[in-house]
């Protein structure tokens, strides 16, 4: 099974990124044969920035993304969205790559399931 998760919201302020990554991590744990792909669009590109410092007891999107990547997940961030937000030249989390709508389309067409947050 190939699962693609599209995240559109910023890492904090809503719990959409948090819940998307909870889904990804649970899929990896409970269905180890599932290939998980995450595509960050719009303000979700901020999820890929390193150095996130959250209060103790609060979820941390950076740690969650790293966990997904360590477990074999692929994470791409929209290059155009990153450019529009002035972060295209900033360092991203290890394992996250800038990408294109062409690649997002290819992932979508190749996936068995696509979920959007």
Describe the secondary structure blueprint for this structure.
Blueprint: E1 2-7, H1 16-30, E2 35-40, H2 61-70, E3 74-78, H3 79-84, E4 96-99, H4 101-110, E5 113-116
Helix pairs in contact: 1-2
Which characteristics define this entry?
globular, single chain, 117 residues, Hypothetical Protein Ychn, Chain: A, 5 strands
Question: What does this protein look like?
Answer:
This protein is of the alpha/beta class and 117 residues long. It has a single domain (2-116), classed as 3-Layer(aba) Sandwich (Hypothetical Protein Ychn, Chain: A). The chain has four helices and five strands; from the N terminus they run βαβαβαβαβ. The chain has helices spanning 16-30, 61-70, 79-84, 101-110, and strands spanning 2-7, 35-40, 74-78, 96-99, 113-116. The chain has a five-stranded parallel sheet with strand order 4-3-2-1-5, with helices on both faces. Strand 1, helix 1 (16-30) and strand 2 form a beta-alpha-beta unit.
Summarize the structure.
It is built from 4 helices and 5 strands. It has one domain (2-116): DsrEFH-like (Hypothetical Protein Ychn, Chain: A, 3-Layer(aba) Sandwich), CATH 3.40.1260.10. By secondary structure, it is of the alpha/beta class.
